[in-house]
Amino acid sequence: MSDAAYLLVHGDREYLLRPGEEFGTDLGVIEVPEDANPGDTVETHLGTVFEVRRLRGPDLFDHLERTGAPMMPRDIGLVIGHTGIAGGDRVLDAGTGTGILSAYLGRVGASVTTYERDPDFADIARENMAVAGVSERVTVRTGDLAAEVDTILADEDSFDVLTLDTGDAPTIVAYAPDLLLSGGYLAVYSPFVEGTRAAVEAAREAGLVEIETFETIQREMDFSSRGSRPSTAGVGHTGYLVFARAP
């Protein structure tokens, strides 16, 4: 059975399944052929037709097993855009959680080493990387990056990008100049402004340059016969992002 999953779609119904896997629904039992390919159709035993689709990033966000609140796609887009993460880059990450960020980065071709302190969460993240088809590019380690920094510095080459989504990010930021290649980027995500300020202060003390901080807000638009306006559903705030660069 292939590790990577496909999206099976019928109308507004979507199921994440691997080739060779069987799943029961009220529309019938779906059995995905081992040789399934995007664009194929699969019928349930009741005759309902599902389309086979290749997974995209937003599908991972919607369907991977969650162990907490994952980073939103818009935040991930900013991380990729501001750091220029691309194929061949080496990324060190802390605060794996569900693994959404790591999966996105693996799918753009980066080699990611990510640390998760909770062993159960780490196991789920490894399974999620398999479902996303990026197990060969994403290594999920169980442990605390802050406690492993000295070992990493002794045993591994420097990284192109350091991404942090963890409460002890300021502690790790202090090591960023040693962990990163010259010109490499730091990206810190925090849902709280207090943690964001601490990360900025740590980046300054560490001698990082080009330090920038953003609040991420996204508003949906409503279009009706009466007119067009931003949605009143909420302000769309998710968190804060700090970017900095190793000198």
Automatic annotation (TrEMBL):
Q: Which organism is it from?
A: Halorubrum vacuolatum (Natronobacterium vacuolatum)
Query: For the tRNA (adenine(58)-N(1))-methyltransferase catalytic subunit TRM61 C-terminal domain, which residue ranges apply?
Result: 74-222
PANTHER family registered for this protein in UniProt: TRNA (ADENINE(58)-N(1))-METHYLTRANSFERASE, TRNA (ADENINE(58)-N(1))-METHYLTRANSFERASE, MITOCHONDRIAL
Superkingdom assignment: Archaea
Provide the alphabetized UniProt keywords. Methyltransferase, S-adenosyl-L-methionine, Transferase, tRNA processing
Q: Which Pfam families match?
A: GCD14 (PF08704)
Spell out the GO cellular component terms annotated for this protein, sorted alphabetically and separated by semicolons. tRNA (m1A) methyltransferase complex
Reply yes or no: does the keyword NAD apply: no
Name of the protein in question: tRNA (Adenine57-N1/adenine58-N1)-methyltransferase
Keyword tRNA processing applies: yes
For this UniProt entry, which residues form the secretion signal? none
Kindly give the InterPro entries that the UniProt entry links to this protein.
rRNA_Ade_Mease_Trfase_CS, SAM-dependent_MTases_sf, TRM61_C, tRNA_MeTrfase_Gcd14
> What GO terms are given for molecular function?
rRNA (adenine-N6,N6-)-dimethyltransferase activity; tRNA (adenine(58)-N1)-methyltransferase activity
Q: Which GO terms describe its biological process?
A: tRNA methylation
